[in-house]
């Protein structure tokens, strides 16, 4: 189901790109109602729209039928949050979000693969953790940037995603009493993701019981703008091999930074063993 929904979302995004004539810095869409291509409960779709409508990065929205699917398009500007986020060192990637619908599918992967918790590392505005909450999962959003954490806390909704302002490579994950977590690492390998992932992984690795039950998701790219990894996997192949992780699968999904790219962002899933 995940693969089909992801493919449908990518196809919808491509049609959206070809039709879009706006000038906003970021733009994305969310279907309005359940359909054959997106058989998502309307209560969950409503929660995704609620996240977008309450999120200050979006300044405009409008209805649009795209490839036969009624959607709401959200236009936004992340500039002030991006500028604030680049003050941190090279192990912390600047803020550039995935699509809300992509966050929904990423957290659905966690649920369908029987993970118990989502830990969103370098969570930005918290959308992946929020989507985990939409799926009824226990979610934790860990972000170093105080402006982004304040944004998260301003999103007063019925979905609890445990927003925390802390350096993820120093956080005590044992304090969360995790049972079978999936960690989402924000940032491309070439944009601070490797350092961030290594720091978090070493914290988790120190406890074998937690390590052996943990899953990982890394944001990767096929773009020629970035140096390739000799082991491939969208920049994460060597890291996965060197840290004794087992590759599960890759899923392509739209993000803010891939809107004008021919290839979508690759989410690389692996597990400890």
User: Do you know the CATH topology?
Assistant: Rossmann fold
How many DSSP-defined strands?
Answer: 10
Which second-level CATH architecture applies?
Answer: 3-Layer(aba) Sandwich
List unreliable stretches of 5+ residues: none
The ordered H/E elements are HEHEEHHEHEHEEHHEHEE
Question: How helix-rich are the residues, as a percent range?
Answer: 25-40%
Given helix and strand content, the structural type is alpha/beta
Q: Which shape, going by the Cα principal axes?
A: globular
In short:
The protein has 273 residues and is of the alpha/beta class.
Structure notes:
By secondary structure, the chain is of the alpha/beta class. The chain has a single domain, classed as 3-Layer(aba) Sandwich (Rossmann fold), CATH 3.40.50. It has helices spanning 2-19, 42-54, 79-85, 100-112, 127-134, 146-154, 193-205, 208-211, 237-242, and strands spanning 26-31, 58-66, 69-76, 117-121, 138-143, 163-165, 181-185, 215-220, 245-253, 265-272. The strands form 2 sheets. Strands 6-5-4-7-8-10-9 form a 7-stranded mixed β-sheet, sandwiched between helices. Strand 2 (58-66) and strand 3 (69-76) form a beta hairpin.
């Amino acid at each position: 189901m995940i693969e089909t929904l992801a493919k449908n979302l990518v196809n919808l995004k491509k049609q959206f790109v070809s039709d879009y004539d706006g000038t906003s810095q970021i733009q994305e869409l969310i279907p309005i109602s359940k359909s054959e291509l997106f058989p998502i409960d309307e209560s969950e779709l409503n929660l995704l729209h609620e996240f977008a409508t309450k999120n200050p990065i979006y300044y405009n929205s409008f209805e649009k039928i795209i490839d036969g699917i009624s959607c709401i398009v959200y236009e936004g500007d992340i500039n002030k949050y991006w500028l604030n986020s680049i003050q941190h060192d090279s192990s912390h990637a600047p803020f550039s979000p995935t699509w809300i619908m992509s966050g929904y599918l990423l957290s659905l992967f966690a649920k369908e693969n029987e993970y118990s918790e989502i830990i969103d590392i370098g969570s930005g505005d918290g959308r992946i953790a929020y989507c985990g909450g939409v799926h009824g999962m226990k979610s934790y959003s860990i972000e170093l940037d105080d402006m982004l954490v304040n944004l998260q806390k301003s999103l007063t909704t019925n979905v609890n995603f445990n927003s925390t302002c802390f350096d993820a490579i120093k956080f005590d994950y044992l304090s969360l009493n995790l049972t079978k977590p999936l960690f989402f690492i924000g940032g491309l390998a070439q944009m601070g993701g490797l350092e961030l992932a290594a720091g978090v992984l070493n914290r988790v690795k120190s406890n074998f019981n937690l390590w052996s039950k943990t899953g990982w998701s890394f944001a990767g790219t096929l773009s020629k703008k970035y140096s390739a990894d000799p082991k491939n996997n969208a920049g994460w192949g060597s890291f996965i091999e060197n840290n004794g992780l087992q590759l599960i699968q890759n899923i392509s999904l739209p993000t803010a930074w891939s809107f004008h790219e021919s290839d979508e962002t690759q989410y690389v899933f692996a597990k400890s063993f």
